[in-house]
Amino acid sequence: MFTLAIHGGAGTLSPSEMTPEKEAAYRRGLEDALQAGLAVLSGNGSALDAVEKAVNSLEDNELFNAGRGAALTSDGRQEMDASIMCGRTGKAGAVAGVKNVRNPITLSRLVMEKTDYIFLLGDGAEEFAREQQLPFEPDAYYITEFRKEELRKAQQKPAGVGKGTVGAVALDRHGNLAAATSTGGTTNKRYGRVGDSPIIGAGTYADNRIGAISCTGDGEYFIRLVAAYDVACLMDYKGLSLAEACRTVIFDKLKPLGGEGGLIAVDPAGNAELVYHSEGMYRGWADERGRKEVAIFDR
Domain 3-295 adopts which CATH fold? Predict the structure, then answer.
C-alpha cells in the first residue's frame, strides 16, 4: 500500500484572481508532480525518492513558489529554503538562503546523506552543492514576469507580502514514510528572513511510527507552534487520529494566533489529510487503490 500527497502552497491566490486558464495550468502542475512521485512508488521505490521527485517537479514549475518560481527578495533575487526527512531513519537535511541552485530539495537530501550535518546556510550550502556537482541556474531562470510583477506590487506594501511553499509526503510499499518541503519564501523579504520550511519539526517532520507532515503558510506561526512535530505529538502522546491532529493544529492553534496556512500528512496506514485555513491550497493526493484528487479551492 502506498500513498502520496502534495501541496503547492496555501493562501497564495484568491478565487477572484483565478481564471480558467490559470486553474488549468496549476492543475497540470499538480498532476505532473503527483505522477513524478507515483512513478517511484508504483515501481516499489522509496518514499524518500518519491517526495524528492514530486518536489523536484514543483521546483521546476515557475507557477509555484520554490525553485524556478521562487519569490523575489527586496533586492530582486531568489533566496530558497528546503528540508527533507526520512521516517525510517529519523535523519534529515535542510538548507536556507541558497541562490541559483536548481533544486534545493535535492541539495537538502545530499546534506542528509553526505554530511554529518542537518542544516547548511547560504554560501556554505552553495559551496557544498558545487562539490556535489548539482546544477545551478542563472538569475534570469528565476526572474519571471509573474514574480517581477508580484515584487512590484509587494514593494508598495509592507515587507513580506506574498508567500507560498511546495511539499510532499509519502508512504511506500515497504512501510516507510518521508516528508519534503521547499520554498522561495515571502515576496519582498529582507534581512535573510527564513521561515518554517527548512526547520525540522516546524515545516517538515517524518516518523515511521506516526506520520509524515509538510506545512505551508505564514512561516513565523508554524515555527512558533513547531507545527509539523505537534501533529506527530498529538498522535503519539494523546492518541489522536491523523485527521484530529491535523485539524487541531490548523484550526485550534494556528487560526487563533492569527496565522494562515495548511498542511499535508500521511500516516502508517496510508491515510492522507490535506487541511488548510485559508482561501485555498494547491493540493493533490493519490494511493495504490487508484483514488486520486487534485484541488485548489473547496469547489
Answer: Glutamine Phosphoribosylpyrophosphate, subunit 1, domain 1 (3.60.20)
